[in-house]
Amino acid sequence: DTGVSQDPRHKITKRGQNVTFRCDPISEHNRLYWYRQTLGQGPEFLTYFQNEAQLEKSRLLSDRFSAERPKGSFSTLEIQRTEQGDSAMYLCASSLGPGQIQYFGPGTRLLVL
Amino acid sequence: GENVEQHPSTLSVQEGDSAVIKCTYSDSASNYFPWYKQELGKRPQLIIDIRSNVGEKKDQRIAVTLNKTAKHFSLHITETQPEDSAVYFCAASRESGGGNKLTFGTGTQLKVEL
User: Fold this and answer.
1) Using an 8 Å Cβ cutoff, are B23 and B3 in contact?
2) Which of A111, A109, A78, A74 is nearest to A91 (CA)?
3) DSSP H helix total and E strand total for chain B
4) How far is the C-alpha of A85 from the C-alpha of A38, rounded, in Å?
5) Cα–Cα distance for residue pair B90/B103, rounded to 1 Å
6) CB under 8 Å to B61, separation ≥6 — which residues?
7) Tell me, what DSSP letter sits at residue A68?
8) A74 touches chain B (CB under 8 A)
9) Which of residues 4-43 of A touch B (CB under 8 A)?
10) Side-chain half-sphere exposure of B105, counting CA atoms within 13 A
């Protein structure tokens, strides 16, 4: 499968726990984006990388959220001290470069109890 | 920042009819407008996109029109089929100072009835 992949697909956790999600972009895609989607809404931008550099973070991304793309390939999104309001679908997308089509992964559905 | 509004939120059509979904955006610097289709439980998939230097683009039964002056763009689906049933999202983005991050509308649930 040469598309964007994400792991895990589903995560159930208790409030206060830390969780980490992984995204593997399409090979040779320099840009990697993270979005969050809640039920009945469109995806909302969280952050993006150009290779290994994190170039922008949304105000939605509180201090509990951190994202990395250490070697410019896969990326991880960590949420510390999860809250019930963090329950959502976390989507990753990648593109070949600026202004190119963004291809989405299947998402990680997080449920915080 | 950019704000994208999308209408209608739900749309029901008979098979074979046309469907039109409309979006407006607020940032005049936005220059890229993709449309994504999302089936239940699946990833958003690009169905068509348009850039600000073009007024209209067509791909088989799907077309998108853009009015930069009015800051609105529309998706047109002709000869609808049951497999067109899904949620459709419009989005807007700009590269300069925007990183091409997508700002999405709230979605339109399209139902094509037999």
Assistant:
1) no
2) A109
3) 0, 11
4) 10
5) 8
6) B77, B78, B79, B80
7) E
8) no
9) 4, 31, 33, 35, 40-43
10) 31
Determine whether the interchain pair B46/A103 forms a contact, defined as Cβ–Cβ distance below 8 Å.
Answer: yes
Query: Are B14 and B82 contacting, i.e. CB atoms less than 8 angstroms apart?
Result: no
C-alpha A18/C-alpha A21 separation (Å) is: 10
CA angle B57-B45-A79, nearest 5°? 135
Q: What tokens were used for A67?
A: 């994202």
- For A54-87, write each residue's pLDDT tens digit: 999 998 889 999 999 998 899 999 999 999 999 9
CA B66 vs CA A35, A81, B3, B62: distances in Å: 25, 44, 16, 14
The alpha-helical segments, DSSP class H, found in chain A are: none
Q: Tell me the torsion sign for CA atoms A19, B88, A69, A55.
A: negative
Q: How confident is the model at residue A99 (pLDDT cuts 50, 70, 90)?
A: confident
Q: Does A98 touch chain B (CB under 8 A)?
A: yes
B96-113 tens-digit pLDDT: 666 789 999 999 999 999
Length of chain A: 113
Question: Which residue is it, tokens 């409309």?
Answer: B22
pLDDT at B78: 98
Q: Calculate the dihedral angle through the C-alpha atoms of A7, B44, A2, A26, rounding to the nearest 10 degrees.
A: -80
